[in-house]
């Protein structure tokens, strides 16, 4: 059973991040792990985070949904967690996958406000409504995870409904996210040069790119490292990014961030570090057709005074997304998202194209890649569960 639980924790690890472009909701980990009524188990259990993430994925009709977790430092030594769970949380902290704070305070709401994320919490936030009016004015921005027949479900704090709703980034958030920041503390996992500096720094799996930095905390109007409380230095403009998504069989399987510095290879099993692997979601025919590395995406700045390529107007300074077919069998472009066969444009091997607004790249029928905000999701099946390997004796769901 210990091996099975470790596999689940590894799966959950792939669903926590502090990347502003990828996180879909924010939560307080110390709160979520103590939702004892979700399974009737021990007082604190890290697997409850996986249950809440699964519920979020179901409601968003999207696979591989990451959450932004705020962690009270006391959790790293909480005796109600197993030694393995404490080790895992410490590793997440050292990898910069979660924010570990001495005094979390209202950081969860601050992150949600800056990034426009929904909040998953049972807390009332009565004293913070003046600073964050959207907690009571926007239905779906704050939802409480509660027990349901097949696992956790969400209940909105105001306005009814159970589907998390994203807001817009605040003006302050946009300004903060337009810059790179550096923490004076050596090895800072959030605002340093890379993989962290704690007890598990030698095991760090994440090399933090400037584009993936979390939002600074504001203290007296000054950008501050939320972990160390130190004033952050301005390290220049943040790299331009574009968030792309992979849709297979009508379901968004994962999102990924494209930057000007690093092209991204998408295929059955790309050998490139950071490549997007699709093999686990493909049927046999799709696996035979789609190459190991099938298409390459690049982000290019639009030249000054140039609208963009004639077939791809620029989008608010976000740059141009260029796709190049590097496969054996070729791909296709669905212009404007059209699924009409007569509209499909063939993309031959070694051919490149600038993506216009709404365009989708089709690697194989039913396997598409496009801009995340232009690629709708929705499928008649349940997204992959991070709890698939959880032993039944570890998770006792309440009876309906």
TrEMBL record:
The keyword Phosphoprotein applies. Gene3D superfamilies: 2.60.200.20. The keyword Transcription regulation does not apply. This is FHA domain-containing protein. PROSITE patterns: FHA_DOMAIN. It comes from Micromonospora haikouensis. Residues 264-333 form the FHA domain. InterPro entries: FHA_dom, SMAD_FHA_dom_sf. Keywords: Phosphoprotein.
């Amino acid at each position: 059973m210990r091996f099975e639980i470790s596999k689940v924790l590894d799966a959950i690890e792939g669903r926590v991040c502090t990347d502003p472009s990828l996180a879909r909701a924010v939560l307080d980990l110390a709160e979520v792990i103590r939702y004892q009524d979700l399974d009737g188990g021990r007082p604190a259990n890290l697997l409850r985070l996986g249950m809440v993430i699964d519920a979020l994925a179901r409601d968003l009709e999207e696979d591989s949904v990451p959450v932004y977790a705020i962690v009270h430092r006391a959790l790293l030594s909480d005796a109600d967690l197993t030694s393995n769970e404490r080790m895992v949380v410490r590793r997440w902290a050292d990898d910069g996958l979660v924010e570990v704070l001495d005094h979390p305070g209202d950081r969860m709401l601050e992150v949600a406000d800056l990034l426009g994320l929904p909040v998953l919490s049972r807390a009332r936030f009565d004293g913070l409504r003046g600073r964050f009016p959207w907690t009571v004015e926007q239905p779906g921005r704050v939802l409480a995870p509660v027990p349901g027949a097949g696992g956790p479900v969400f209940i909105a704090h105001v306005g009814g409904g159970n589907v998390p709703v994203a807001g817009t980034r605040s003006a302050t958030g946009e300004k903060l996210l337009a810059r790179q920041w550096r923490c004076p503390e050596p090895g800072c996992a959030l605002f340093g040069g890379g993989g962290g500096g704690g007890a598990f720094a030698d095991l760090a799996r994440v090399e933090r790119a400037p584009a993936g930095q979390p939002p600074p905390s504001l203290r007296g109007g000054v950008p501050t490292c939320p972990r160390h409380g130190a004033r952050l230095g301005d390290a220049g403009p943040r790299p331009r990014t574009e968030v792309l998504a992979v849709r297979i069989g009508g379901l968004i399987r994962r999102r990924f961030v494209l930057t000007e510095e690093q092209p991204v290879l998408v295929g059955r099993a790309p050998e490139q570090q950071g490549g997007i692997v699709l093999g686990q979601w493909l049927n046999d025919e799709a696996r035979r057709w789609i190459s190991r590395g099938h298409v390459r995406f690049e982000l290019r700045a639009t030249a000054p005074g140039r609208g963009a390529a004639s077939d791809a107007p620029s989008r608010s300074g976000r740059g141009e997304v260029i796709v190049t077919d590097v496969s054996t069998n070729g791909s296709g472009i669905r212009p404007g998202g059209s699924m009409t066969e007569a509209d499909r444009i063939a993309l031959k091997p070694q051919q490149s194209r600038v993506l216009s607004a709404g365009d989708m790249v089709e690697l194989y029928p039913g396997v598409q890649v496009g801009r995340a905000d232009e690629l709708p999701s929705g499928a008649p099946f349940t997204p992959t569960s991070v709890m698939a390997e959880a032993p039944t004796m570890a998770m006792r769901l309440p009876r309906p």
